[in-house]
Amino acid sequence: MANSDKENLLRVRDLKTYFFTEDGVAKAVDGVSFDVGRGETVGLVGESGCGKTVTALSILRLVPQPAGKIVGGEVLFDGVDLLKIPEQEMRRIRGAKISMVFQEPMTSLNPVFTVGEQVAEAIRTHRRVSRREAREKTVQLLKKVEIPDPELRYFEYPHQLSGGQKQRVVIAMGLCCNPSLIIADEPTTALDVTTEAQVLDLLLSLQKEFGMSVLLITHDLGIVAQLTQRVAVMYAGKIVEYCATEELFASPLHPYTRALLQSIPSVRKEGERLKTIPGEVPSPLRFPAGCRFHPRCELADSLCKSRAPEMTSHNSHLVWCWKVKT
């Protein structure tokens, strides 16, 4: 399953990001490892509170400070460890080589500037072009992301656009410098199902057209099945399962992954009560001993409660569990 070093654009190894608070140390990301190949889409899935967004912010070195701190690991982008380079060099990489599409476009768009001005400013930040050239490039991008009447939309403010149109503007902003990697953090969370499908189709077509790599962060396994080639399942700051997408859906090994799949609504389950996962994701301040999923797991025994499992390989299918079913 694993690609060679040359085939992988992004290699995250044993990443640890902690938040130092008055209540203690919150281990939001605690030893995360995964790869994103060149031109590949990888899904990072799990419930809210599992550490997915903090992982993305850590890759870009945007962890909120002073409480947050990356305390260990490597983030190798095209062979360069992003955790070791100067901040000035990191600024040149953000937006130009790695872009992020956030889950709520209103957090990315400034309400007092037109959407066109904001995309154009992103272009001029990383490219030596005139204001006129930046404006022309912006109109082209708005057209590329299928915003109607892009010449007119350029002069409109975020509040004048629909949710789907705002998300398309954010995607255009992410594409403005032809990045090698886009990190899409729940890009369809605030959208209705019809608009969600349109935005996902747009992301897929743009990924194929530009040959970009995509790290797709989501809790929706339906989106993962549609868009990704590999998937990493995250729980309580850990990657608990990592494999090819087809393999995950055909033969999930971790109890948490199986529980997620069983909780997906289906027409085949009409009349049946939807299965849920009991309990909730533990606080990163108070992770349980042993396997972090054991308080919610039907298979947990004394071993699971006392000793943390190690990541093991089952025909290139990686899983962090004592109770692997193959």
Tell me what you see in this structure.
With 326 residues, the protein is an alpha/beta fold. It is 31% helix and 25% strand. The protein is built from eleven helices and twelve strands. It has an eight-stranded mixed beta sheet, sandwiched between helices. A four-stranded antiparallel beta sheet has the order 2-1-4-5. A hairpin with a 2-residue loop joins strand 1 and strand 2. Helix 4 crosses helix 6 and helix 6 runs parallel beside helix 7. It is globular and about 65 Å long. The model has no long low-confidence stretch (mean pLDDT 90).
What would you report as the Rg, rounded to the nearest angstrom? 20 Å
| Major beta-sheet overview | 8 strands, mixed
Low-confidence spans: pLDDT under 50, at least 5 residues?
A: none
Number of strand segments: 12
- Considering DSSP H and I runs of 4 or more, what fraction of the residues is helical? 25-40%
Q: Report the average pLDDT across residues.
A: 90
What class, by secondary structure content? alpha/beta
- Distance between the terminal alpha carbons, to the nearest Å? 17 Å
For the biggest β-sheet, the strand order reads 6-7-8-3-9-10-12-11
H/E element order: EEEHEEHEHHHHEHEHEEHHHEE
Helices, by number, come to 11
- What overall geometry do the principal axes of the alpha carbons give? globular
